[in-house]
Amino acid sequence: MLLRTAVGAVAGVLAGAGFALTLEGVSRYCYLRPGRTGCGVGLPVFYPPVFALWMVVAGVVIWAGFRVARQERGWLVTSAGSVLWAVLIVAAVWFESTFLDLYQADAVVFFMTAAVIVPCVAYAVAAVAAGRARRC
C-alpha cells in the first residue's frame, strides 16, 4: 500500500510540476514584453490540451511504477486520479476567488503551489483507493 501511494504521489508531483511549468512558460512569454501576439483571451484554450498531456504523462508513470511494483489497476488509478485532479483544481480556483483576496503576485504563487500539490494528493489517494497487489 505504501508503494502504491509513493508511485501515485511521484506521478502527481511530476505531472503537476510539468503542468505548472508549462503554463508559467507560456504566460511568461506574454508578460515579458507588451504587444506580443498570441496572448490574452486565446490562452485559456491552451489549458485543456496541456492538462490532458500531463494526465497522460502521469498515467504512463503510474503504469510503469505499478508494473515495477507488481501492482494492478494502474489505468483505473490514472483515470480516478485525473478526475480527482480536475475536481480539486477547480475547487482550488473557486476557493481562491471566493474566500481569499490575494494580490495578483500572491495568487500566482497560490496557483503554482496548488498545481503541484493537488495532483500529488489526487493520484496518491487514487492509488491507495483503487490499486491492489498482483496475485501470484
Helical residue percent band: over 70%
| Residue runs with pLDDT of under 50 for 5 or more positions | none
Q: Radius of gyration, Cα only, in angstroms?
A: 17 Å
Number of β-strand runs:
2
Order of helices and strands: HHEHHE
Mean pLDDT: 83
Q: Beta fraction of the residues?
A: under 5%
Structural class estimated from helices and strands: mainly alpha
Oligomeric state of this protein: single chain
Strand order of the largest sheet: 1-2
Give a verbal description of the structure:
With 136 residues, the protein is mostly helical. It has four helices and two strands, in the order ααβααβ. Strands 1-2 form a two-stranded antiparallel ribbon. Helix 1 (2-32) runs antiparallel to helix 4 (104-130), helix 2 crosses helix 3 (74-99) and helix 3 packs antiparallel against helix 4 (104-130).
Write the layout of secondary structure elements.
Elements: H1 2-32, H2 47-68, E1 71-72, H3 74-99, H4 104-130, E2 132-133
Antiparallel strand pairs: 1-2
Helix pairs in contact: 1-2, 1-4, 2-3, 3-4
Question: Can you tag this structure with a few keywords?
Answer:
single chain, 136 residues, mainly alpha, two-stranded antiparallel ribbon, 78% helix
Question: Short summary of the structure?
Answer:
Helix content is 78%, strand content 3%. It contains 4 helices and 2 strands, in the order ααβααβ.
